[in-house]
# Entry
Amino acid sequence: MREGKQVKDYYGSLVFNDGVMRERLPKDVYRAVHQTIENGSHLKLDVANSVAAAMKEWAIELGATHFTHWFQPMTGLTAEKHDGFISPEKDGSVIMEFSGKELVKGEPDASSFPSGGLRATFEARGYTAWDPSSPAFIKDGTLYIPTAFCSYGGEALDKKTPLLRSMDALSESALRVLKLLGRDDVTRVSTTIGSEQEYFLIDKEKYLKRKDLMMCGRTLLGAPAPKGQEMEDHYFGVLKPKVAQFMHELDEELWELGVPAKTKHNEVAPSQHELAPVFETANVSVDHNQLTMEIMKKVADRCGYACLLHEKPFAGINGSGKHNNWSLSTNAGENLLDPGKSPQDNRQFLVFLMAVISAVDDYADLLRLSVATAGNDHRLGANEAPPAVISVFVGDELAGVLQSIEEGSRFDGSGGSKMSWAHVLPHITQDTTDRNRTSPFAFTGNKFEFRMPGSSLSVAQPNIALNTAVAEELDRIYDVLKDVPEKELPEAIDRMLKDLLSQHKRIIFNGNGYSEEWIKEAENRGLYNLKALPDAMPHLLSEKNRNLFKKHGVLSDVELESRYEIFLENYNKEIHIEALTLLEMIRKDFTQGLVSYMKDVTNEALKKKQLLPDLPISYESDIIHTLDQTSEIIGNKIHQLRDDTDQAEGITDPLKAARYYHDVILKDMEELRFYVDKAERIIPDGYLPYPTYGQLLFSLR
Ligand code: ADP
Ligand code: MG
# Structure
């Protein structure tokens, strides 16, 4: 498709986008589809038939033979089942068919996807429904149709459904507030998202020798390499030629699919990289992030790499996150979080800003929950990632504006001043906010950046929580202002902003989020510090959070309860698999290296003693002693972990099991690892059947 072509000529060439629809659909059908996308109006069957026919023609011209309803079940991955367009004729020939009904609705067997008790296996039927707001595309000869997935009873079994519902809720609440502010021109408010994706690239041959990486996505043992990231020489460093080639191929594949991959660079840890796209409407952006993760893995494999998306593949060096840049945009493209030249006079901006700040304070537990996974727990609170405590960074200028609101005084801080550091260089304007990399939730000029999501997470999750919480705060703002006569509105708004600020200022923190003092200070302020998933999960079912999701029609009680179970089960299963993998790797792979090294050193020492009885063998005996002592402890700890893992299997309550996995199994694993790593430091690399940290992290060319 793209050979010899310029980017503008192949960008989006595999997407059934607006341009293609305008060109290929009859005018009235095109208009009807737009109505559905913009206002959520119901799509009639004859319209669907017409769209299906055009889609089929277009897809077949591009070489497609199959179609699939592409959905996002609670596994966090995507799912697809391919059906051919073919329909055999009596004369032995075949025609290609695709109906409106097939476009709009699918009926996959739902019984093999996580449902958290929502669906007994005898009611295995599930439905997928076309989401026309995210464009269909072609990949590997198949037409992909983005869909939502629900059970026979209509309960959401996926991540897209609640995301779409939360976007609708937020739009509705934002519109009501905007109307109060005199903005009758706005008809829809969308959430916009740009999700920066971090990842590691590892040599494929080496990856295939590590059971822990293959089965769990992270190393479960491994002594640190002599060099880590302390030289700060990788971040924004020169791209190695093969890595640059990988990034180039990745960009091309993504661009063909209309994914706006924009920025690429080396990250802080060795072998760690980042890709950032241009922001898009939340729903499309989430689909595109799923595609990005999938295509990263595929292109990496082709280039001789394994792409690691785990949040903490290596102990002791940075993990990978997925910064969720979030804002609100009107149908005319106005960014509601753009402060303009003088934020102090921009009431509309201040209202939306305070709605977000209040939402983060009132629903900090939900935001924490929305990023809670076994993998991300290793990252949050480690010294390179935001802590598990949520706070909001607003920067000096906005802090000044907010302070003057609180004090009822006039803010006359100056916006961006001119900077110059050498005469030959152009003068540039200073930004009104500096960066604060340590804040989990930072205002970055005209959007918020939520930095807690982990690299493998479906970015739908944090946005479901954020959209719904902000919708709720906007409703409360509307209630305060709705009966105020128009000419008293400005003062009423100022009063309300002041009240909100005094209620929620505890969540604002502009200092170093990584410091010990902040964690103590946060506790004094009464902020949540939900360290691990089992600490956070009970909050999902609190009355406050149930009411929030129910009121805004985002998740019903049963849907929420099913998610609670699924999250816990995923956590428990993941750690269980890790424990079994660690045991297997130690017993089969590590022990082999340990024993053969001990044998060789012993034999060497014996030989030396026979041939040269006067020479000391203290070096050799020292090695044998240390390894012998360590291996005895390892033996005991293996028994402990095995017994405790058996024990864990017997716990039926998922929350109790999660606590056990966290408190007992993870601790066993860490202790075991400590001694294995201690031994690994002494054993030469060649004795181990798997590559060490140094080989894994510094092998890219
Ligand atoms: P950083 O300084 O964190 O590297 P950038 O300013 O380059 O960030 O932007 C990071 C991400 O934020 C990009 O994916 C970008 O598209 C996204 N972004 C920018 N504006 C918005 C917005 N209004 N809404 C959502 N995301 C946005
Ligand atoms: Mg960023």
Observations:
- The CA atoms of residues 397 and 413 lie 7 Å apart.
